[in-house]
Amino acid sequence: MNHANYMKWMQEKLIPGLESKSVIVVNSASYHNVQRRKGEMLFWVDKCGIRYSSDMTKTELYNLIKMHKPQYEICS
Length: 76
Prior knowledge:
Blueprint (H helix, E strand, L loop, with lengths): L2 H12 L19 H14 L10 H11 L8
Helix pairs in contact: 2-3
């Protein structure tokens, strides 16, 4: 599953079949909130003053964070 397939399934299959006033509960699978996760990663590296390239993928950002996390556990 990836984010595009998840969103397509939600919009074409799940939501049309819901009754009025239904509630959807989702877990924190990576494909549920792709943009938010990358945004949180960028916020963290910015807050810690770590240099990065604007075209880095989430995987590259994650590896960069893993390299610096022990040193910057709490950033001011």
